[in-house]
Amino acid sequence: MRRVSRIAVAGVATATLTAALAACGGTSNDAADSGDGKSKGIALAYDVGGKGDQSFNDAATAGMEQAASEFKYGSKAVEPTDGESDADKVQRLQTLAKAGYNPVIGVGYAYAPAVAEVADKFPKITFGIVDDETIDKKNVADMVFHEEQSSYLAGVTAALTTKSRTVGFVGGVDIPLIHKFEAGYKQGVADTDPKVKVVSQFLTEKAEDGGFASPDKGKTAAEGQIEDGADVVYHAAGLSGQGVIEAASAAKVWAIGVDSDQYSQDALKQYKQYILTSATKDVAGAVYNLAKSVQDGKPETGVVRASLKTGGVGLADSNPDFKGNAKLQAALKKASEGINDGTIKVKTS
Hints:
alpha/beta; 10 helices
């Protein structure tokens, strides 16, 4: 098995998904199957929130679209269903593999049991899973990120921006993955200014309860933190984060987005004045790189881990108020150098 420890930064091409997926929901841009054994294209099975979350799933979509455009083949993205079981995920992945898609990628840790099962049934197909590193199989790439590192930088940003000396964190679901975001953020705040208070809340204990897919829950949580004095609120909550950003905008305080550059997203443009930055992770690049490795005949497998050093995580600088703050940028440069050279060890829990 070829173990991989880093990914390259990939530019994200923009394209449009077309046509409805009739069988099980989703969208597709299918090329005709040539029947010569070559891949029909790349396929995604979305996590909760689905396409349009302005975050995690949309980043994966961008990587898929770039691959489909560059390699001139098909693509298919399938939406999740409410209350679905692992058996439903298995069926979804099997359908995509049988149709000839390669790679087939589960977008989110919830796909781990399904990917592990289906990978054994289709040894010639490369499977990918985002945010899980528990699957050790010859045809599976575990695409994971050092989210705690970008969250540390978000914490530095919050500590140097707050005027109230109180900042907030809203996590979608109370799970180890989101604890990484919280831990890095809190450490970044404390290392920068230990007098700044962090108020923290998780929306749900389980993903199926809507923690990643309920903007109303995110909005309510952020409103509570703002009432408690927070004037910077960082979210790691997927689609629910839209509610966090809406609440921050209404209160005219800062929001820090996650996964994608949320300042630049059309669906959030009415709030962009109050989106200071976003702690990004290059899901798009990871998806594209896996597709390219398959196309090149050398599929990535094993753990593919992205970090601040590889460019796989970081902070978006689209907002001029963020980019033009010399004191903040100097502090972030120093913190980044510390993380990269190991003098700053960021906690994951």
